[in-house]
Every structure is written in C-alpha cells, then in structure tokens.
From TrEMBL:
Pfam families: Aldo_ket_red. InterPro entries: AKR (IPR020471), AKR5G (IPR044500), Aldo/ket_reductase_CS (IPR018170), NAD(P)_OxRdtase_dom_sf (IPR036812), NADP_OxRdtase_dom (IPR023210). The active site is at Y54. It comes from Paenibacillus riograndensis. PANTHER family: 2,5-DIKETO-D-GLUCONIC ACID REDUCTASE (PTHR43827), NADP-DEPENDENT OXIDOREDUCTASE DOMAIN-CONTAINING PROTEIN (PTHR43827:SF3). The record marks K83 as: Lowers pKa of active site Tyr. This is Glyoxal reductase. Substrate binds at H116.
Length: 280
C-alpha cells in the first residue's frame, strides 16, 4: 500500500513503478505543459505519462530535462511512460515509433512503453516489437492500454512476455472489477486513466459525503480509493495547486465501509471510447 508520493509497486519485470503520477492528456505543447510537469516533479512526483498522439512529447522532454537539472535529480529517479499510436502498430513501425518518441522526449530509454489501443489484427505484431525493445534492454517495462480481458488473453497466448501494465479508463463509475481480477491473476499492474472521470464525479453525493467526513476533496477520496485497491493512478492537471492537492492523499485512510460505498457506485459508464468499438 502506498504510504507516500514516491512509493512504488514492483512490476513482474522487477522494475519499480510509482503508484502516483502526472497525466498530460489534452495538454498542448507550450509553457503551461512545461510548467505543470516541472511543478509536479519539484513537488515530488516521479512519474509522468504521455503518448505519441498527445503531441506533447517535446514539451514533456524539455520539462523533464529542466526539472532534472533544477532539482538535482538523476534520470533514474523518474519514471516516464509513452505509448505507440494506432497508425504505427506493426513490428517495424512500432520500433520506429519508439525511436521517434525517444527523440522528441530527449531520452535514452523509456521506463514504460504501451500499446495505446487494441487495434484488431495489429496489436500482436506491435507486441512482438515491444518484446524486442524489452529483451534488447531499450525499455524498462512494456505494457498495453485499453485492453479488455479477451485482448489480453489473445496477446498472452503467443507472447514470450506477459504485459506488465494495463492502463485503462477506471473511476468509481467504471470500476473494472472483472478486468482488475484477471490482471491480478496474471501479474499485470492495472493503471487508471481519467481517474476523476474528467471532473464529472466532483459533485457526486456519496463521494462528497465521504470527502466531508475525512476533511478531504472528492478528487482526493477517489485517488485514495485507487491506491487502496492497488491501482496506479495518473490524474491530469496543469494547475500547481491542484497538482499538489491531488497528491495529498497519503495522510488519511478510507474505511472498509467507505471503500464498499464507492465500489457500489459502479455503472460501467465510460467517458472515453469502448475498447471493443472504436474506429481510429
């Protein structure tokens, strides 16, 4: 269980991944992005999650370079994730996409590289490419994003290496219980994107009641719920006060009753696309 912001979970590869990180989805290149990443790292965040399709890898790379220098950190102190986009799924194309991401990020390696979406007929070739990157020591850990149980079973059937992480939309209205159980059995770490449901849960009555009882915000309660369920979480924010508030979740604990009430909010409701029905 995560006790502070820099606590980690050990992936089945032996790599330590922070339980808590900063997401930068829908944050455009520019000063706001750079400042957000630098603020997070200065405050103590050690994990940053981006993707090729976010088109902000250059800004993340610049922010990381500046933050390392300003905070006297080593590259090994940070955990940087990116993802291969659907158009680049394929053995050679995925290898090239990895090189392109590294170049934009100005890094020698990534800590975690993910297949962004399970494009039918393409993701298995891409997985072979990730295995090649991993076995040749070019990336510390490999995984997938938005994979359902049947996608994971399909990959694992022919894989030399089981995915280490599955990053999926996950929040109290989409608690992904069966997928979480399957991933736990397979030794795959679940990671939540859109943990706050893009702000749609901040007025949820049950969550407000639990938050008030703990003297915390609804966002903090949701992120704490993630951690107590053993879910890596990467809330997105560009505002420094929110980046700090989001991470202030290590000084309280939700009771079993609180956890069960939040679990009971599940509606299998998505904000993002359904991984079985997407056309991009």
């Amino acid at each position: 269980m995560a006790l502070h912001l820099q606590d980690t979970t050990r992936l089945h590869s032996g790599v330590n991944m922070p339980w808590f990180g900063l997401g930068v989805f829908q944050v455009e290149e520019g000063a706001e992005l750079i400042q957000a990443v630098k603020s997070a790292i200065a405050y103590g965040y050690r994990s940053v999650d981006t993707a090729a399709i976010y088109q902000n890898e250059r800004g993340v790379g610049q922010a990381v370079a500046e933050a390392l220098a300003e905070n006297q950190l080593a590259r090994e102190d940070l955990f940087i994730t990116s993802k291969v986009w659907n158009a680049d799924l394929g053995y050679e194309a995925t290898l090239a996409a990895y090189d392109a991401s590294l170049e934009k990020l100005r890094l020698d390696y990534l800590d975690l590289y993910l297949i962004h979406w399970p494009v039918q007929g393409k993701y298995k070739d891409a997985w072979r490419a990730l295995e090649t990157l991993y076995t040749s020591g070019r990336v510390k850990a490999i995984g997938v994003s938005n994979f359902q149980i049947h996608h994971l079973e399909d990959v694992i059937r022919d894989a030399k290496i089981t995915p280490m992480v599955n990053q999926v939309e996950l929040h109290p209205y989409l608690s992904q219980r069966e997928l979480r159980r399957f991933c736990k059995e397979q030794g795959i770490q679940i990671e939540a994107w859109s943990p706050l449901m893009q702000g749609q849960l901040l007025d949820q009555p049950v969550l407000k009641e639990i938050a008030a009882a703990h003297g915390k915000s609804v966002a903090q309660v949701i992120l704490r719920w993630d951690l107590q369920h053993g879910i890596v979480t990467i809330p997105k924010s560009t505002k420094e006060h929110r980046i700090i508030e989001n991470a202030s979740v290590f000084d309280f604990e939700l009771s079993t009753g609180d956890m069960e009430r939040i679990d009971g909010l599940n509606q299998n409701k998505r904000t993002g696309p359904d991984p079985d029905h997407f056309d991009f």
